[in-house]
Amino acid sequence: MRSILPFAAGMAIMLAAGWVGFPHLIYKSRPQPVDFSHKVHADKAGQKCDDCHSFRADGTFAGIPTLDKCAGCHAAAMGTTVAEKNFIEQYVTPGREPQWAIYARQPENVFFNHIAHVKRAQIHCETCHGNHGASDHLQAYQEDRIGGYSRNVWQVDERGKTTRTAMTMNACVDCHRQQGLEHSCLDCHK
């Protein structure tokens, strides 16, 4: 019995260290290039998601807005924040696109069609991405060192609370099942 106690204690310590340390080993983290406030743009400017994150004429999702969308309003400072001043000096004035990290970057073999979900199924952006309109700062981007895809995605739980969880195949499958949809693997994996 005496020999089991040190073993069990050592095992518990190693499991705890792995539980805490493993995410720091597998994911590398970096800040977004600009300290962007969705809240300011939603509340003060009255913008909606699709004002900046729009669809192209062919129906594909354009994703992160290009600098020309930002420069339309920010050729000169509209507020007094240091973040806006830096954004104008570093990106708008020289005409340099910010290198945004994409939170929902998926593995190469995964196909996701925004238009089928947003336009055809009438799913609101907030259903999967949460209420970004209330966020004052962007979360740090976390990338899987092995696969190269992102860890972050915003989701809303059953109580309507915004949570940050890893985008997984199970989350997609669960949502489809809740909607009474069944698909083959090849619908999402190409």
| Main sheet characteristics | 2 strands, antiparallel
Shape: extended
Q: Work out the strand percent.
A: 5-15%
Structural class: mainly alpha
For the terminal residues, how far apart are their CA atoms? 54 Å
Helix content: 25-40%
Which sequence of strands runs across the widest sheet? 1-2
Number of DSSP-assigned strands: 4
User: What's the Cα radius of gyration?
Assistant: 21 Å
Low-confidence stretches: none
**Element pattern in H and E:** HEHHHHHHEEEH
Integer average pLDDT: 81
**Total DSSP helices:** 8
The quaternary organization reads as single chain
Describe the protein:
The strands form two sheets. This protein has a two-stranded antiparallel ribbon. The protein has a two-stranded antiparallel sheet with strand order 3-4. It is 37% helix and 7% strand. It is extended. A hairpin with a 5-residue loop joins strand 3 (154-156) and strand 4 (162-164). With 190 residues, it is mostly helical. The model has no long low-confidence stretch (mean pLDDT 81).
Question: What's the structural blueprint in terms of helices and strands?
Answer:
Elements lengths: L3 H23 E4 L7 H6 L5 H4 L14 H5 L10 H11 L21 H7 L4 H5 L11 E4 L9 E3 L5 E3 L4 H10 L12
Antiparallel strand pairs: 1-2, 3-4
Summarize the structure.
The chain is mainly alpha-helical and 190 residues long. It has helices at 4-26, 38-43, 49-52, 67-71, 82-92, 114-120, 125-129, 169-178; strands at 27-30, 141-144, 154-156, 162-164.
Give a quick set of tags describing it.
mainly alpha, two-stranded antiparallel ribbon, two-stranded antiparallel sheet
